[in-house]
Amino acid sequence: MSNNINEPIFMLIMSLSAAEKRHFKLYISRNQANESAKFVKLFDVIDGSASYNEEHILKKIPDISRQQLPNIKGHLYGEILVALRLLHTSKNVEIQIREQMDFAKILYNRGLTQQALKILAKVKLVAKAHSHFIITLEILQFEKDIESRHITRSLKGRAEELIGETNFAINQINEVTNLSNIALKLYGLFLENGPVKDEVQSREIERQFKDNLFSIKEDQISFYGKAYLHQSYCWYYMITLDTTRYYRHAEKWVDLFTKHPEAKKENPFLYLKAVHNLLNALFILGRHQKMNLEIENLEQFYAQSSTFNENLEKQTFVYLYTAKLNKHFLEGTFTEGLELIKPIETKLGQYHQYIDIHRVLVFYYKIASLYFGSGDNEQAIEYLNKIINLKVGHLRSDIQCFARLLHLIAHYELDNLQLVEHLIKSVYRFLSKMESLDAVLTQIFEFLKKSLSSNPHDVKKSFVELRNKLEIISTSKYNRRSYQYLDIVSWLDSKIENMAVEEVIRRKFMKG
């Protein structure tokens, strides 16, 4: 018996909007002789269920046997996809292009060669205009097949023309493929380890990066080539902690879409990724005015979500609310930012089957940091425990490490000193295992161990000493990376001045 919300047919039906469900029923009524077909009954039962339960289905539809169910599910799945393709053809240029290619194939198979070539010539212009070079290459191959098999009266000079177009398309494909490969590799490195920890790692990544980009000339590549080039630079400079250059390339990446608005419609995911990186760079640099402007632009984009596909809506939600949380961190308005938690939790629950665990992990850490900054250490610990209990291997080992450190500090704030003593050892072992112990973290551990046995009157002096040590240590950018995850200096200032962390950060923000 299957009782699983991850059942493919259940997930597909649950992802449909009300309009898509209506369209599916209309499509079936037009194309099926019998509206009461078994797969239609199956659709209705699954649509009205909170989870996928085969026993419930078989009980509700007695004329479907257990042996028939897999085939009927497969048929229903295929019919839904066909209906969705028909519904969304007008919204997706790539689907329109492939539909025209299918029409050309049908005409060619019927011997109507000239009509097929006419369709291919028109649709090839559309594919080129939208930088769909792989599809362009498919169209060219089809044209070459026709020209080589038939006397079409267009062969004079046609061979050289098709060969030239084909070579150009191949060069464009190779260029975009290579650049997107570099971007993906760097993103994978960031997801696994976060920023570099020392000069050795930095030099190794620099060597690999420059070897791959040695022959790339920005003024000689296509739109998508430039987009993936700036994406690659963004990952590279984010990993190597060069925030200024990270910001410059994120801005250039967004500017590409500003200059080519049609590309924003054609590939909104790549545009969103650019905006997300620009917002992240602005947050790290503390440029709150421009950050607020970009958040407003993204909110306007999100307001159009009724016209989005589901995946785009989910991605926009992730980036918009990440930026909103960062805005509160930057401005020191932690308590005000708590209002975001409920809508975030609601969306995470609604999208839990579709949002990857990396995004969930980041949200949990930011929510925990929000509670910590507002002074609610118990709620911070609750969210940090969610991270600690996730089984994610080395995924974002940087966040996993700092979640444990913040968890330790939150318990320290609550005077759970016996637990802190135990946690110091386990967290130290974890960070050592992940090779994440830098000079800043080592000093924090030394302070916490020392403070457990210190005279209460000496603790404030210890906070001052730690702050002075961190000021010296943080002159190295590799040690300063810790501050991207945990504003340890503001926490120390709050202990020294007997103020809330939120007040300290707000005061720094107001001073500019």
Give me the Rg, rounded: 28 Å
Given helix and strand content, the structural type is mainly alpha
Shape: globular
Helix-residue proportion: over 70%
- Report strand %: under 5%
Average pLDDT, all residues: 89
Low-pLDDT sequence parts = none
Give the helix tally.
Answer: 27
Distance between the termini: 62 Å
Q: Count of DSSP E strands?
A: 0
Kindly summarize this structure in a few lines:
The protein is an all-alpha fold. It has helices at 8-14, 18-31, 38-47, 54-60, 69-88, 93-109, 113-129, 133-149, 158-193, 199-213, 223-239, 243-259, 261-266, 268-285, 288-302, 310-331, 334-337, 341-350, 357-374, 377-389, 397-413, 417-433, 439-452, 456-473, 477-480, 488-497, 501-511.
What does this protein look like?
The protein has 512 residues and is mostly helical. Among the domains are: 8-90, no CATH class; 93-156. It is 76% helix and 0% strand. It has helices spanning 8-14, 18-31, 38-47, 54-60, 69-88, 93-109, 113-129, 133-149, 158-193, 199-213, 223-239, 243-259, 261-266, 268-285, 288-302, 310-331, 334-337, 341-350, 357-374, 377-389, 397-413, 417-433, 439-452, 456-473, 477-480, 488-497, 501-511. Helix 22 (417-433) runs antiparallel to helix 23 (439-452). It is globular. The model has no long low-confidence stretch (mean pLDDT 89).
Question: Could you give the topology of this structure?
Answer:
Elements: H1 8-14, H2 18-31, H3 38-47, H4 54-60, H5 69-88, H6 93-109, H7 113-129, H8 133-149, H9 158-193, H10 199-213, H11 223-239, H12 243-259, H13 261-266, H14 268-285, H15 288-302, H16 310-331, H17 334-337, H18 341-350, H19 357-374, H20 377-389, H21 397-413, H22 417-433, H23 439-452, H24 456-473, H25 477-480, H26 488-497, H27 501-511
